[in-house]
Structure formats: structure tokens, C-alpha cells
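Weekly puzzle thread! Below is a chain. First person to post its structure in C-alpha cell form gets bragging rights.
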Amino acid sequence: MSAGTVHRKAAKKPRTTYTPAVVDPKSQQPSGSQPGVGLPASTSSVTRGNPATSQVTGASQSAAAPG
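Winning reply:
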């Protein structure tokens, strides 16, 4: 009986890890296809900021060029 209880606890532990993992892919539906926990989530955030920064840098350069 003791062994059964331990097995049940182990199954519950991974379940808790899955809960946060589901929240991560939810934020990035396109990356949801990939089974990632935090790595894909972090990359998505950085990739999203990359294009935004690129646009800002381009606008800044354009303004500096004519100025």
C-alpha cells in the first residue's frame, strides 16, 4: 500500500510542472506545437522584442540621417 501512495505522489508532481508549461505555450500559440517548458517561452519573448527593437532602431537611424 505504501508503494502505491508513493507512485500516486510521483504522478502528481509532474502534473504540477505541466500546469505552468500549459500557460507558457498558451501565450505563444505558434510555439505551442513544440513541447517546450521555459526555453521556447524565453526565446519567443526575445524574438518578439527583436523585431520591435529593429523597427525602433531603424526609425532612430532614419531620423538621425536627415538630421
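Puzzle host: Confirmed. Bonus trivia for everyone else. The mean pLDDT is 54.
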